[in-house]
Amino acid sequence: MWVRLLRSLRSFRFKLMIAALTCTLIPTLISLTIHNDLTRDAMKEQAVTNAQETLLLVDGYVTNLLKHMLYITNYVQNDIEMNTILKEVAAGKQYEGPDAEYRKFYDTTRVIEKLDTITGVGGEPAYVTIILPDGTYYANYSLHDYNPIHMLKEPWFGQLNNLYGYQSYWIGTTPTMFYNEQNRNPYQISVARTLRGEGLKIYGYVIVTIMENQVNQSFESLALGQEMMLLDTSNTILSHKDSARIGQPFPVTASAQEQQKSSDIVKVDNVDYLISQHPLSLTGWKLVTLIPYEQAIFKISSIFNRVLFFQLIAFILFMFILLYVLRAFTKPIMKLRKVVETVERGNLEVRSHIRRGDEIGYLGEAFDHMLERVKGMIAEVNQTQTRKRNAELAMLQAQINPHFLFNVLNSIRMKVMGKGDKESAEMISSLSKLLRLTISQDKGMIHFHEEMEIVMDYVKLMNMRQKEKVQLEVDVPKDAFMIQVPRFFLQPVIENALLHGLHQSAGSIRIQAQVLEERFVITIEDSGQGMDADTLQALRHNMTAGETKDEAETAEAGRKQGFSGIGLPNVYERMRMTFGDTFEMAVDSKPGACTRVTMDIPREVGESHV
Hints:
The chain is of the alpha+beta class. Among the domains are: about 140 residues, Beta-Lactamase; about 60 residues; about 140 residues, Heat Shock Protein 90. The protein is built from 18 helices and 17 strands. The strands form 4 sheets. The protein has a 5-stranded antiparallel sheet with strand order 2-1-5-4-3. Strands 7-6-10-9-8 form a 5-stranded antiparallel sheet. Helix 12 crosses helix 13.
């Protein structure tokens, strides 16, 4: 019984039912999840929209405050009368004459009156301080509140010397320096600017200060549970309803801040908050608001539970209907399974005889036809194996002829050398080497020193063949000899230089190699007649566009005249097939002077081929 039960659990029918149930359950769960996520997203978007609107309102108020501070600094920097007085005093102006004290008092009064004019018209006060390099100061507040000379000792004051033009230094939130404000407003916010005259010489500094509560009073209109603050670029709190929080780091982990967008969900003290932020363009600071996330999405739970209940009822009803239908549809498949088990035991004569108008009927008919084809394929495979063995035997027999030829050439060389004709013996030896490398197909990549030996043997043969000798100059570093290169890629280039560059006349061919970190550069230059611009252009075109009809005729002529006649286009095509697009080949020529072929081979790719 257990065997039958196990077999039923492993059957296609059981798996199909499980798959059907799974495919029903998964969409249900997905729909619930998507519905939940979409609802949460909608609630989140609404909460984000509300938070952003609040941020925009607060941003408008805070930005106006900061703009007012900049307006004061701009006024001080641009007022002609005030700047004239400040520049003269900074330059060391001496008040002389019977009315000297009056004129000095008048100038000081004019500066202070202007400061009172731009800061004392309604609203909260703004404290303005002008300090000259010699310590002279002007302020719209009394010395009893604060002595401006103390600003020279502030840690930020030295950074003002790096400001030019309308650049401003936002000092941020610091403890209140003014005595009459310390009890009501423990913190202040300041901005400073440098006053420069001709030649960018500093003649003064202007510092504008407001109380921090002028900023945080805009936070009081927020909804219950919502929290807003002003942060600097290092995420330190600059302004908050709770003054005890000022100067503390923003209560969000560093990783959450890095991943944070304009609005996101973060965890603070194990509580999820919806965080929204808005940058202030004037200072680089930002306004941040925190809202408890559950406060925004608490209605989602009841909606989710109702949807889940109706989904479960629909799923149970559909499950019973689906199981009944699947059982009826899978009966022919169970029959086909029994036929397959019979074939597996080696009986190729059995047939399913399932003929229906649907896919199962097509499957049964195709299975019966497949059995017929299998019988024919077995016979065909036997015939193919017989032909393969015959071909391998023929290949082994074909290898006898080249080895016989090499042995005969070696015997002739020894006989010629015995008669004292060393030049002919050397010529036969070089020819034997070239023939052996030409016929050998056992490896496509060789070391560079093997390729150089092929080239030297080829030039030696050609020098014995023609009347005038060609000198082969080799400038190759030692570390280049063990680099892997394609077999017979240099010989066609040398042959081209001998036949077409030097025209089988006296001259020289120079081979240079350079090993770079990732490249292997080879240059072949002959002292031949070179090519004119049209011929060079045609050669370059043939080399990159493939062998044309003219190139084929040239290659055929080369085969009649020389050893291989492969030609530069064929070498280029072969190297590109071996190394891909990273291989580069350039041909340069000067009429009546020389022709130079440069091949740039990727070193790592070249060394990886064996």
